[in-house]
Amino acid sequence: MNVGRYLEILAVSFRLGLTSFGGPVAHLGYFQDEYVKRRKWLDDRTYADLIALCQFLPGPASSQVGISIGMVRGGVLGGLLAWIGFTLPSVVALIVFALYVQQVDTGGSVWIEGLKLVAVAVVAHAILNMGKKLTPDRPKIAIAVIAAIAVLFYQTAFAQIAVIVLAGIVGYLSFKHSDLPEGADIQLNLRKSFGIISLILFFGLLIFLPVMSGFFSNIYVQLVDIFYRIGSIVFGGGHVVLPLLEREVVPPGLISEEVFLAGYGAAQAVPGPLFTFSSFIGTSIEGISGGLVAVLAMFFPSFLLLIGVLPFWNTIRKKKSIRAALLGVNAAVVGILIAALYDPIWTSAVDQTKDFAVVLASFAFLYFWKVPAWLIVIFTVLFNVLLSGLL
């Protein structure tokens, strides 16, 4: 065992976890600079292919790219260390924040209101950026609009999953004759037999955990079921987690909508992947142990999928039907975000002129002046406090 190599993977990924602000696209830029340009662990072509793979899979795309690079460098253990390093800083920060929120009265708090307003600006920004890339033409815009309308009227996790599946079918039927480039092969040493076992475990847990949750009234079983299931089906990156998680934890009363949105706003101020928002929710429900269970369950599907799909990816990605279906799924993701922007985000955060003014200013700095998200969080909270004191 090359201990030095594994320590290097952990140290480099931990430093990235401390400094990678700005969301998934920014993370990919940090990875390219560190792993490709500086350390030359892989070349630009292989890096681009890993990004293509992780866009194909459900889950947190930027985190999966980091895990994949760790696997290229040091096998499965290397992937695990890369994930630990990249996610640990934000997990610790959000667990601490959740513990603080539990000790204070959040009702009517001006700074909590500011964090809720952050979510409005950030999700609106994400919709515009993703929409430009994922819905560039009228057919994909139509898929997004129909998906948004469906989710607005049928606000359940099952409805959102059904929308994603139907969008994939529509994408296949609509774009299967389009010109879709294949890309290059990826060189990784993972056995196909190991991949098959991993995929069997992935689908087995997806079926078995809801059954277990129904039979056992245990909060930890329930947390594993919720976060594993969401981590298994979410396409489009961290912001898409918001509506799925909200439907799972707010209506059943596991946490309040106010605390949920405050945590989501705080998640914008920390580096690393947005999927670590799961640690805030788990901690808010069941303390530190709940936070750790939630974040492990949220990311575990990504490991199983990467180990399972990597050995077969070079063959799968050449299938035009898969690439066509994914175009429809990605368009539906934009629609789901649009629905989430209205409910629960807008309806819970904006109820007076002052709130809209704060959101407008925050969005302008975020979108037009390209101010980092963590600075937007600070600005929004302080601006909301200032306006609340003046008006």
TrEMBL record:
The chain crosses the membrane at residues 12-31, 80-102, 108-129, 141-174, 194-219, 226-245, 288-312, 324-342, 362-387. The keyword Membrane applies. It is found in: Cell membrane. Keywords: Cell membrane, Membrane, Transmembrane, Transmembrane helix. It is a multi-pass membrane protein. InterPro entries: Chr_Tranpt_l_chain, Chromate_transpt. It comes from the Bacteria. Signal peptide: none annotated. Belongs to the chromate ion transporter (CHR) (TC 2.A.51) family. This is Chromate transporter. It comes from Salinibacillus aidingensis.
